[in-house]
Design goal:
- The chain is mostly helical and 73 residues long.
- Helix content is 55%, strand content 0%.
- The protein contains four helices and no strands.
Length: 73
């Protein structure tokens, strides 16, 4: 099977980082807000999201769905 590589599909992490910077937020600010939403996230995890989202991209292939499926209520 083909390995999905963030370097071939860098948009998600780049866009998260861009949005954070446009809002003049530090990573710790975002992490604090996520924790207020009961999301257990560390600095390391958040850094990984901004730089390496292979798993999320791969899960769309595994489940044969688009990203919107992850956000349905």
């Amino acid at each position: 099977s083909e390995r999905i590589n963030q370097h071939l599909n860098p948009l998600i992490g780049s866009n998260i980082r861009r949005l954070r910077k446009e809002r003049h937020m530090k990573a710790v600010d975002v992490i604090a807000k996520l924790q207020c939403e009961n999301i257990n996230v560390t600095t390391g995890i958040f850094s990984k999201v901004e730089t390496d989202v292979d798993m999320l991209i791969a899960l769309t292939k595994v489940f044969e769905c688009d990203f919107n499926e992850f956000f349905k209520k």
